[in-house]
Amino acid sequence: MTDTGQSPADVELQIIGGGRMGEALLAGLLDAGWATPQQLGVVEPDTERRRILGNRYPGVRVSERPGPARGVVVAVKPAHAAEVCADLAGLGVERILSIAAGVTTGRLESAAGASLPVVRAMPNTPAQVGAGASAVAAGTHAGEDDLVWAESILGSVGVTVRVEEDLLDAVTGLSGSGPAYVFLLVEALIDAGVAQGLSRDVAGALVVQTVAGAAEILGRSGANGTDAGEHREAVTSPHGTTAAGLAVFEGHDVRAVVAEAVAAATERSRQLGAD
Asked: Are 121 and 177 in contact (CB under 8 A)?
């Protein structure tokens, strides 16, 4: 659907930014029945990308520029988030959810030029497959209803938690960047299997299923991963093969390396917010 100049009543939610995360949210909202295609809009400046989105999601309003909408998700690069919020003035927007890394609600509220409720969130890329992990924080003018609204959007593509805004940088360093840490471990495990004589295909199949299976065990335990140590101990026999492997990890102080990586990503998120 092309831009038809609809009123706020026509578009319940407009996603500004039709990249991977914006599309993941769109697909999740449609799958969850959060709204009809006609009640959703996507703003994407790239012509080819607009064509792709229009073909994939018939009925969704796909346009080049922001238009009237009740709610907006800002899913653009951090450098453009404030500019987008400034463009929303006068369009009848009632509230904003931003997933731009590092950009504070204060900056977005100032750019919007009104007492618009702003909720800031940090999702991660597994949202693309409905398995995301997101955290949300309220801005100055955002209340309980606005947080519930934001959680309903992000909940369509995974799990959502609430934090204070000053902790969102830590969320970015942990779960926002976390999938890349897992992918790195998978790469390393596959390479290690190949080094021990396995083919890359066999090693890859074993590692991917091992990671997926371990995650499933944690998910079913109902303890939000806090019992990971108990599961580790359960598969570690004294003086056995797993104990020998874990001893190497501990010898290289892998816990400290992980902590340093999360700290570095957290600090980078703070820098993005200060730019």
From this structure: no
